[in-house]
Queue: 3 jobs
Job 1
Amino acid sequence: MTFTANQIAVLIKGKIEGNADTAVGSFGRIEEAENGQLAFLANPKYEEYLYTTQASVVIVSEKLDLKQNVNCTLIRVPDPYTAFASLLHYYEQLKTQQLNGVQEPSFVSPTCKKGENVFIGAFAYIGEASEIGNNVKVFPGVYIGNNVKIGDNSILHPGVKIYHDCSIGKNVTIHAGAVIGGDGFGFAPQADGSFKKVPQIGNVIIEDNVEIGSNATIDRATIGSTIIKAGAKLDNLIQIAHNVEVGNNTVIAAQAGVSGSTKIGNNVMIGGQAGVVGHIQIADGSKINAQSGVSKSIKTPKSTVTGSPAFDYTSALRSQAITRNLPEMEKRLTELENKIKLLLEERLAINQL
């Protein structure tokens, strides 16, 4: 697919400087892009490449002051990164819209309701009484259990597994290998030391505009629903336990884990490898640094915590500074003790005269 600078500018509502008919057919990083490619400049530290790049079209900030002449066509926008992301999204949509129909071999239950322009890849399985919305793309090897609902424009990448009774909203993307609706980790201790499994009869509800990374796992609720609310973004290799709620527009980085029945607020940011215990609440706008262990509720909105156990970020930085100074502080303390000892010895000697 080839687009002119003018067509791109219309899509991202940008202003052209240069030849509006310049055509591009692919994307490239500004420092290594070739003729016929589109690049963008969002980080000022890469500005030097703007004057040497071979890219034909570059998206830049409307506030950028050029220090030299450029050989490419510029498209000026308020936010180059967001504009480029929107363009990539449109490009991705064009590719997936071409997919349509049911590939063989695959199994689609006769009781499944399919919308328009649905694609179902080879070796996919769709169970009884499921509902597949318009423009949904189900890639090869996907399993969709009984009574599952998939909203319009959602994409399930290869190998995704969605267990029975789960609900997926509109414009949801689930990447390869993710498992939605597996049993929660519920076992009742017995008197003999064994564990009796507690049946997990709830489901998982994923609301609109959510993205879930590869090999993430979201467990079904014991009773009720595990809920991922609208706009949330989950990275690869994340564990969300039974009856957890993840708030609107919350982002969680790779290898983080959230234990059962914890309620995470809106617009929360959780760093990679962070762990959150069960049955607590995380206030709206909280930030949890990577590898932090959160063992109690965060009740104040927009708090930032770090460490294990996690506590206030500013206090943690002070503690780290003190820790670095401990050897010098120990030396000074030893010197002070020696001086006090000498003073006491001198006073004792004086008293004995």
Note: The first helix runs from residue 5 to 12.
Job 2
Amino acid sequence: MPELPEVEVVRAGLDRHVVGATLASVEVLHPRPVRRDPRGPAGFAAALTGRRVEAARRRGKYLWLPLDNGDALLGHLGMSGQMLVQPAGAPDERHLRVRFSLGSGELRFVDQRMFGGLLVSAGGAELPPEIAHIARDPLDPEFDDDAFVARVRRRTAGIKRLLLDQGLVSGVGNIYADEALWRARLHGDRAGDRLRRGQVVELLGHVRDVMAEALAQGGTSFDALYVDVNGASGYFDRSLSAYGQEGRPCARCGTMIRRVAFMNRSSFFCPRCQPVPRAVRQPARI
């Protein structure tokens, strides 16, 4: 699933190519992507037709386009969603689901697996109420570091689970959690309340660094599904030190990276640099 850097790359592309444009027409080619909009496909299209896009914003992994009437087009890319800007008349993509005519060009929502979705958020231009519960992300200038550290240190869950909790911190997914934990030399099962304040602060810094580096490289693209609005793939996958590196030597100590099952997916870590926490734990020291 696209994480913060990949979604931010798409948002930046929408900001360059779509903001200021008027949605001259909207065509829903498959009803599933708009399944969460109570208006249905026809009402979804009618609510957007003729509206001007005022901005392109993001909260965690969600994107929204504020409109000139105070509403917003809210979207989530899911597993394979793409927002592509194409010239008018360009051949349709195989998995094209929704087409927005911009006059001289088109914005297209393409989604092979159809886990993504779009809806019109009434009055959601500033912040759609549908995502008001999503926490800010570490790259947000208003992210509260002290509050994050305090909340982590009150939790008994493993630190990787906490990084993936979108109500605690948004935008961090499996890839960047593994990379940040490797940089911080922390195993993902280390309980939040077992971490010193300095360890959480350091980890948060690594989360920011790894996502900023990924963003600079266009995100992480393991296949043709993760692309920007022009269809270009990112290349941060070449810089990964932990995620997807099973059986390869750790860049820091040479120990082979290990993979374990985690929440219906995988975790990758160095067993030497990131030792598995002991079953019997002693109180954390300040």
Note: Helices lie at 4-17, 40-48, 145-152, 159-163, 174-184, 197-216.
Job 3
Amino acid sequence: MKVAVVQHPPVYLDKARSIERAIDLIAEAAAEGCGLIVFPEAWLPGYPTFVWRLSPGADMKKTDELFALSQANSIDLGKDDLAPLKEAAREHAMVVVIGHQEIDGAVSGSTLFNSVAIIDADGRLLNNHRKLMPTNPERMVWGFGDGSTLKVVETAVGRVGALICWENFMPLARFALYAQNIDIYAAPTWDSGDSWLATMRHIAREGGCWVIGCATSIEAADVPETVPYREELFPNADEWINPGDAVVFQPFGGPMAGPMHKEKGLLIADIDVPAARASRRKFDVAGHYARPDVFSLRVNRSRQSPIDFE
């Protein structure tokens, strides 16, 4: 089975045009014979890297303005904003894993979440996981997810689960996925470099699963001129804001494809999905290596809400 890992930037902070680009990339991956495509963290409408580049106190007005633009271009599942991607998945018979910034239109209408959606090849949204813990200044932008979406789902290409960026450093979150018979572990991220790639290799070995890591490959020149404070945020027009480093690791082994560094395109890899389960003969962290008489994990799968209307 062929998988495609996206190393294209979105149209930064432009939801409608980014969705159009995503549909084109799905069609491109389908033409390559892929059954699965994985997009990076917050690819719709673009990772809010401005929170790492502005002073939290002195630049609050600028942060507020950029947040408002980001908020206006976030995905509202209540309005079925992913409908075009669900249709593209169905049209091309492809499983789509895509990171997106989600707005909770049902409750506050304001709070944003860093989410990853898994869409099956028939167009059904199987899971939408919200990042459990935003990292450092990300907490100025995103709220907290809960355990209700810590799920591995059965798709047309096998059992797929996803954790976002530094969630992948959380041993218990990883174990929650390992314990659901996972075949393909997607790790959409903004991270890159040797330490991140070492984490992807470790997860492939620890979990005995295929691991797909991908960050948004983007240069300063890719940021539209209409983005507020563009010149201040990205003064070096030649800067690689993020080099990408898309990679696919084998279960209990090394890289199958990538890393794809400072390039744009689709990283294509052939994977043998059943090899994941076979690899766990040696080490099955949620099976014969688990020692439930010594260790146990309880996951609260209740959906958390600030209000309950009776």
Note: The radius of gyration is 19 Å.
